[in-house]
Design brief:
Layout lengths: L30 H20 L6 E2 L44 E2 L8 E2 L3 H13 L11 E16 L2 E6 L3 E8 L5 E5 L8 E2 L10 H4 L6 H15 L6 H14 L5 H11 L5 E8 L5 E9 L4 E7 L6 E8 L13 E13 L11
Antiparallel strand pairs: 1-4, 2-5, 3-9, 4-5, 4-6, 4-13, 6-7, 7-8, 9-10, 10-11, 11-12, 12-13
Length: about 350
């Protein structure tokens, strides 16, 4: 069993197998969840503003690092931009709490961009991803991912808006190989006991589903665009949505080495992807990054890699361009995540090296 803190490992999908579920829907795949997420965001916002009449509200922010695969419909890639900051409200533990962001805004030094260096760096990263001893999964096991995460939000107090960030906190996710069962524990989000992720349909990050993805980079990229288009927020540019979808598959699942390598090669074929000379993950580890700027909101999504081993450390979103009307200043980290452990375990709530 490999409990690598970074390198993703999962699989390939047959070119003939569509990601879409076989059940007919009255809406395209992902749209039910799209509407649900917007509804939950509204409920979450209402809870914030009514929790205490005197308390300032923290507006939920569309943040890529709280947009967890646990909320996604079957066979749909991550919806770039439609995030429920208070996803604990989606069910499970009634004792879940609305996350509070009260600390000073997270900020960072912005790394220099090499617009032409991404293909070469991604080629090296792809080779490193393929050259790993990959653990084998067995029936009945769960994918376990531990991480540290935080996000930044606008805080509204009357007619005054300030920017506040969450305290860096731990997050643990267990997901069955078929994606139909799982558990989430996230400090400040779910309560100490966590919430169930069980559902009728398997999640899009399910290991068994990832094991059928094509590993031809061209075929894989076309499929990613197709599935991303089906659930994409219209406000998010098409290329950015696909880039974020790849990043979430790498960070929020445990792809086999051949699929991880193919995902990096696919990213190298996308427009606007750049290399960044320095980026810092949520726990302070410096690395190089592969990134792409969303021109609509001025935020750059960065996948962060160890400078020597090129293992994936985590990802973050940084404001690098001012957008009129936005309260975030350049250098604000709107979301950050660091993978601390990733492994296959035999039971729900079991951590590597310990029984459940």
């Amino acid at each position: 069993m490999n409990a690598s803190p970074s390198q993703p490992h999962p699989a390939e999908w047959t070119e003939t197998q569509d990601l879409q579920p076989s059940v007919e829907r009255d809406l395209p795949a992902g749209r039910h969840q799209f509407h649900k997420e917007h509804l939950m965001a509204q409920i979450h916002d209402d809870l914030r503003t009514t929790r205490s009449a005197a308390a300032p509200a923290v507006r939920p922010r569309r943040n890529p690092f709280l947009r967890r695969a646990v909320l996604l419909p079957a066979a749909a890639f991550v919806l770039a931009g439609a995030v429920v900051a208070g996803f604990a409200l989606s069910g499970g533990d009634a004792g879940g709490t609305v996350p509070l962001a009260t600390g000073p805004a997270l900020t960072t030094q912005i790394g220099a961009v090499d617009a032409k260096g991404a293909p070469q760096l991604l080629d090296r990263i792809s080779l490193a991803a393929a050259d790993v001893s990959e653990p084998s999964a067995h029936d009945g096991q769960f994918v376990y991912i531990a991480s540290k995460v935080a996000a930044t939000y606008p805080r509204i107090d009357g007619d005054k808006t300030t920017v506040v960030s969450q305290e860096l906190h731990s997050r643990q996710v267990w997901e069955s190989l078929d994606g139909r069962d799982g558990w989430l524990i996230e400090k400040g989000e779910t309560g100490d006991d966590g919430i169930t992720l069980a559902g009728e349909n398997p999640s899009s990050s399910a290991y068994d589903r990832l094991a059928q993805l094509p590993t031809d980079p061209d075929v894989l990229l076309k499929q990613i665009y197709r599935e991303s288009d089906a659930v994409r927020d219209p406000e998010v540019p098409r290329d950015q949505a696909a880039f974020v979808a790849i990043g979430d598959l790498l960070n929020e699942s445990y792809p086999p080495a051949d699929l991880a390598a193919a995902l990096y090669k696919a990213a190298a074929k996308m427009p606007g992807v750049v290399a960044v000379d320095d980026a810092v993950d949520a726990v302070g580890r410096h690395g190089v990054a592969i990134a792409r700027l969303n021109e609509q909101d001025g935020q750059r999504t960065e996948w962060i890699f160890d400078k020597k081993t090129l293992e994936l450390l985590g990802q973050r979103s940084v404001v690098v361009k001012h957008v009129e009307g936005d309260v975030f200043k350049i250098g604000t980290v709107t979301g950050t995540s660091a993978i601390t452990q990733r492994a296959f375990v035999d039971e729900m709530k079991q951590t590597p090296g310990r029984s459940s």
